[in-house]
Amino acid sequence: MSEQQLEVKEFDHPPLPKNWLRTVVIIWLGQAASILTAYSSIYAGVWFVTETTDSALMLALASLCSMLPQGLLAPLGGVVADRFNRKYVLIAADAFVGTMALIMGMIIAMGHVSVPLVLIMGALRSVGQAFHMPAMESTMPLLVPKKHVVRVNTMNQSLWSMALVVGPVLGIFLYTVVGFQMVLFLNAAGCAVACLALALAKIPDFHDDSDEARHPIASLKAGFATLSADRGLLILCGIVMAIMAMYTGINSLFPLMTYDHFRGDGYAASLIEGIYGAFSLVGIAILFIWGGGKRLLRVVALSGTFSGIILIATGLLSPSMFFWFAVLTAISGVVESMYNGPLLAVVQKRVPPEKLGRVMGLFSTVTALSSPIGLGLAGTCAEFTGVAMWFVISGVVVTAGGLAIGLLPSLRKLDREVAATFDEVDVRKTNPTVENAAE
């Protein structure tokens, strides 16, 4: 297909804020405090459920409670992100999560810790994330030159990898030494730091003032229409849903894989999580320096394919091969870190900025609502087939999804169209008045 036949979509963007790099760094540091402490509390909760129940089904249920509210409410979160000042939406979401962590910590400090309470805690955090993620993912691309979109997505992704290194260690330490409640109090403090950073950051007030955006149902329909009108994105969403369904189940079973299949303890589980996070940072550093190139879906396809192969190999390990489990986990950390940043950039480059919150909300819903499928399959099937065999089954599905992204004609066309946008000059200029608008 010739370049003239490609559908190159370019949209008007708000002017870049003055000192845009400083703005991004301030936001990133605040989110680092929030995410690192949040992952500590998440891991403490997961380990509490693991120790208390030793059940794959209960671990799957805990993960379901932490993802289902986000999946159901993310479209509404996208509507809110497009309709209102995204800066205040982000502050409100972080404040809600921090307040819930503080309340739960106080309840646990009074001696009322239980599995149902951990499930409620996960569900409430998921509600906050339903509003936070669409607002964040639709804001950050507008704060940087478009050639750096993959890099800023990679920066955000690096927070989760850092959390995998710091979170388990900090969560286990506080959980075993000073109690579960201290992990939650730390999470509340991290959210407070994130709110302060957002308050100090100069974020342009960019939202949709149209009549359509004032009506939630009409606004949501417009988001659906934008996504469904792009055949390539629609097919991509379906494949991503299948891949994420498998990965959600696998992620929920990682502690049990260590605990049950390899006969490890809490520190062994922390070690595996830390290894994954550390080597994810290696992959993220490579992607950040490289930038992902122009053919972003090719990177996504390779990442998905090799990630699936690694899952298959992991499931075939014998219980005495914990060392090789750690090695494969390290390799998967590097490979999987190449997935999300380019994938999000493809969506961000194909959607008008004023509708980006809604589409990112829908995209979050597609991935989050794949969680009940994956968790249901993982929790149920792992009880009968064993945890290791479910790694093999999931690996086959993930590998097939990665190959489909790389080989389907409609997605190869989408990849070429997105690549063509890199040849366009970013005409946006930094605008000092944007800082005033941010206030």
Please trace the helix and strand order, writing H or E for each element. Answer: EHHHHHHHHHHHHHHHEH
First-last Cα distance: 47 Å
| Largest sheet descriptor | 2 strands, parallel
Strands in their spatial order, largest beta sheet: 1-2
Extract low-pLDDT stretches: 432-439
What is the helix fraction of residues, given as a range? over 70%
Helix and strand content put the structural class at mainly alpha
What percentage of amino acids are in beta strands?
under 5%
Radius of gyration: 21 Å
Count every helix, treating DSSP H or I runs of 4 or more residues as helices: 16
Number of strands: 2
Anisotropy-based shape: globular
Mean of all residue-level pLDDT scores? 79
Commentary on this structure:
The protein has 16 helices and two strands. The protein has 439 residues and is mainly alpha-helical. A two-stranded parallel ribbon has the order 1-2. The longest helix has 34 residues, at 20-53. Residues 432-439 have low confidence and may be disordered.
Q: Nutshell version of this structure?
A:
With 439 residues, the protein is mostly helical. It is 79% helix and 1% strand.
Question: Could you outline the blueprint of secondary structure elements for this entry?
Answer:
Layout: E1 16-17, H1 20-53, H2 56-83, H3 86-109, H4 115-139, H5 149-177, H6 180-200, H7 216-228, H8 231-261, H9 266-290, H10 296-315, H11 322-336, H12 340-350, H13 356-385, H14 387-407, H15 409-421, E2 430-431, H16 433-438
Parallel strand pairs: 1-2
Helix pairs in contact: 1-2, 1-5, 1-6, 2-4, 2-7, 2-8, 2-13, 3-4, 3-6, 4-13, 5-6, 5-9, 5-12, 7-13, 8-9, 8-13, 8-14, 8-15, 9-11, 10-11, 10-12, 10-14, 13-14
